[in-house]
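Lab meeting, item 3. Inverse folding demo.
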């Protein structure tokens, strides 16, 4: 699958600068059993805060799902806001296996070519946004 990258070179050395983007790409995440039935659409911005790069955006797509009641396959729309940070410095990983995880350990890394790949960010956010109980439109109408 092709990466969904943004070149952040223009804002790397300018605190407060940002890049706006509006991207669309087909994707799937078979390792997570996520099959998208519509392209990923993400619109937002990346800002240099001086300590991190802050990504803010709105993601929309549809996933193939199976209704929890009638067991029919349907296309479940997902639309959500995303806000993530990318480290401006070199990531240092604790050497000890029992080391405590700190907030800075949860930042995404910038690629060596001064780009950020949004696919992993989006994949993680899709997983957290999928409803626990998936119901097709027919079943949600009957519920009301």
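The presenter then showed the designed sequence:
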């Amino acid at each position: 699958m092709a990466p969904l990258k943004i070149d952040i070179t223009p804002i790397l050395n300018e605190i407060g600068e940002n890049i706006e983007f509006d991207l669309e790409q087909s994707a799937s995440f078979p390792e997570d059993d996520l099959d998208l039935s519509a392209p990923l659409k993400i619109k937002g911005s990346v800002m240099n805060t001086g300590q991190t790069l802050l990504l803010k955006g709105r993601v929309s797509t549809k996933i193939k799902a199976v209704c929890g009641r009638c067991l029919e396959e349907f296309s479940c729309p997902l639309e959500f806001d995303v806000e993530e940070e990318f480290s401006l410095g070199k990531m240092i990983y604790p050497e000890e296996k029992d080391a405590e995880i700190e907030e800075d350990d949860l930042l995404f890394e910038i690629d060596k070519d001064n780009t950020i790949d949004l696919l992993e960010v989006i994949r993680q956010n899709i997983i957290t946004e999928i409803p626990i109980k998936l119901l097709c439109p027919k079943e949600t109408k009957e519920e009301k």
